């Protein structure tokens, strides 16, 4: 066959779509949810092909990065089902998340073939009573549960010496940008996997920085919702007063799509009853406005979150000055150098609801925190965590019955919130707080947001002089998600 004839055949094959699988696989990297849905509609891509692509990337990258603990063995079946629903124009098949794979942090329960272990061997083989509330909503939206993400074991609540991103079942997670830098925690695997294109969208949970930190250092977007805006039922708890579930994605728009799918009342979680008043009935997508910054009053709290601001030669100072200038150019009013009067006390403020979670499991190797402590002592070599200990578990167990003390702690946290961020925002009529989020060089704003159950969002801002990503964090009072978006 002549060269010209062969070229003609190849051109025909390309025109008739015989190589769409190859070209589609190439375009999937960095694709947004809108990109993927458009590809579905134009028949350039199927959910099955999308899942196959991610499975291939997981096999290639996960042995190094350790973002996934488990892959859902039913993921290809669920993808095929989504394709059939789309083909038949079934009800719900036009939802933004329909046919889109999503990764769940390993403390979010699924009633399927996946384990829910918080990264620990102690819960391997446990049986949950039902899907977590947010999983019910994701399935209703047509999302495909692709697997469970690695995480700091027991949300880093086991020990003060446990490295961020260390998972008993999977080992130390790694930052895709700088392997030695660490992925932060405790939703480390969710951040790693989105950053490395092993999945486009994921869910994390936050008690104090568990979404915001790994999102920032993995150069993705993370939304920590107002406590109660999303259900925590079926989520292994740390602090019901602070725990919240939120999206971790590459773009704000994708994160908003996920947030729209998972917010709402759940009779298994009383906190959602109080937070219903904050939910936007028409959804959060409507607040994605290009000119949304115009006229917004943003308070910049430099101390102690911006300690490097006097170093005019630093990469971070130059980058953040550029970003803050951009905010002003887009119409925001930046009110600089405000200080929160009790910030040091807030950042140093320190029970556990783990017993309640273990008790409601249908089957589990451990039933109480005491059982868990005993399991770790017996099998610490299995988890390779002997050197990290379990001082936080033991401290929580020692507080059993100390209800009066715990009430005093909660009352103090409420007071700190009222006299801290709430006073600052109301006194100066701020729409939001804005500050750099670079954990390696600045104090952690997440604690300020955590103790009051306040929302926050972090967006990628740049990279430091060794290539580690950092973000800018916006935060505010309860229910401020529309303004943050």
From TrEMBL:
Q: What residue ranges carry the coiled-coil annotation? A: none
Reading the lineage from the top rank, the first entry is Eukaryota
* Gene3D superfamilies, alphabetized: Amidase signature (AS) domain
The protein's UniProt keywords, in alphabetical order, are: Signal
Q: Which InterPro entries match?
A: Amidase_dom, AS_sf
Query: Which is one Pfam family of this protein?
Result: Amidase
Stretch forming the signal peptide: 1-25
- The Amidase domain, residue ranges: 50-479
PANTHER family with a match to the protein in the record: AMIDASE (PTHR42678), AMIDASE DOMAIN-CONTAINING PROTEIN (PTHR42678:SF40)
Can you say what this protein is called?
Amidase domain-containing protein
State the species of origin.
Hevea brasiliensis
The lineage, from the top, is:
Eukaryota, Viridiplantae, Streptophyta, Embryophyta, Tracheophyta
């Amino acid at each position: 066959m002549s060269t010209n004839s062969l070229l003609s055949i190849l051109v025909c094959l390309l025109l008739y779509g015989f190589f769409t699988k190859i070209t589609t696989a190439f375009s999937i990297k960095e694709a947004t949810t809108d990109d993927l849905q458009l590809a579905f509609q134009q028949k350039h891509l199927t959910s099955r092909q999308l899942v196959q692509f991610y499975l291939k990337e997981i096999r290639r990258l996960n042995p190094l990065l350790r973002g996934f603990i488990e892959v859902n063995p039913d993921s290809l079946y669920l993808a095929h089902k989504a394709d059939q629903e789309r083909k038949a124009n079934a009800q719900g098949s036009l939802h933004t998340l329909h046919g889109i794979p999503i990764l769940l942090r390993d403390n979010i329960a699924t009633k399927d073939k996946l384990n829910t272990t918080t990264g620990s061997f102690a819960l391997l083989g446990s049986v949950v009573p039902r899907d977590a509330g947010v999983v019910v909503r994701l399935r209703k939206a047509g999302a495909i549960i692709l697997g469970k993400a690695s995480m700091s074991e027991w949300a880093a609540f086991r020990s003060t010496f446990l490295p961020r991103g260390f998972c008993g079942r999977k080992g130390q997670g790694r930052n895709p940008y700088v392997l030695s830098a660490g992925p932060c925690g405790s939703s480390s695997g969710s951040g790693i996997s989105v950053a490395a294109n092993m999945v486009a969208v994921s869910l994390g949970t936050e008690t104090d920085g568990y979404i915001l930190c790994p999102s920032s250092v993995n150069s993705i977007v993370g939304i920590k919702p107002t406590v109660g805006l999303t259900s925590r039922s079926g989520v292994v708890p740390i602090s019901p007063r602070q725990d919240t579930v939120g999206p971790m994605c590459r773009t704000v728009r994708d994160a908003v799509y996920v947030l729209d799918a998972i917010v709402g009342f759940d009779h298994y979680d009383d906190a959602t009853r109080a937070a219903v008043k904050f939910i936007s009935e028409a959804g959060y997508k409507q607040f994605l406005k290009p000119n949304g910054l115009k006229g917004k009053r943003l308070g910049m709290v430099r101390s102690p979150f911006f300690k490097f601001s006097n170093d005019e030669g630093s990469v971070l100072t130059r980058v953040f000055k550029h970003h803050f200038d951009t905010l002003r150019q887009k119409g925001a009013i930046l009110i600089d150098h405000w200080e929160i009067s009790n910030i040091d006390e807030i950042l140093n403020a320190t029970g556990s609801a783990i017993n309640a979670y273990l008790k409601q499991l249908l089957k589990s190797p451990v039933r109480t925190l005491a059982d868990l402590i005993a399991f770790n002592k017996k099998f610490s070599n299995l988890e390779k965590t002997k050197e990290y200990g379990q001082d936080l578990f033991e401290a929580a167990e020692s507080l059993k019955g100390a209800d009066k003390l715990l009430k005093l702690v909660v009352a103090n946290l409420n007071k700190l919130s009222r006299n801290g961020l709430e006073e600052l925002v109301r006194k100066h009529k701020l729409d939001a707080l804005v500050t750099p989020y670079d954990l390696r060089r600045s104090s952690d704003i997440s604690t300020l947001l955590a103790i009051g159950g306040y929302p926050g969002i972090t967006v990628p801002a740049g990279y430091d002089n060794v290539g580690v990503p950092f973000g800018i964090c916006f935060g505010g009072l309860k229910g401020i998600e529309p303004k943050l978006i």
